Protein: Two-component system chemotaxis response regulator CheY
Organism: Kineosporia succinea
Amino acid sequence: MKILVTDDSRAMRMIVIRTMRQAGLGKNEIKEAENGRQGFETCKDFNPDLILSDWNMPEMNGIEFLKALRASGNTTPFCFVTSEGSDEMREQALAAGAIGLIVKPFTAEAFMDTLGTVVSA
């Protein structure tokens, strides 16, 4: 499985990847992007099976990234990993086509609870 991790913080991308390994998802091919625009461009060549994205990023934020993907016809499962998890954000994410929203700080169990139906360990 190919997974794209998009976050403007390199440290946070590393934490997400480490947590994925703790959840038993480390054997997957993983690419990183620094913002939604870069993530959108990376999707064209990488064709990920799953996208994990921060919400707040420069150039193109996470919800803009998701909406751009869906507008282009891309239906790749998309999950937010963000520090904000209000009901309004969750509703907006799901309405735009996200499979879930994992709130920071998170655990390997939170990843599997949200992503378990999409990924295999």
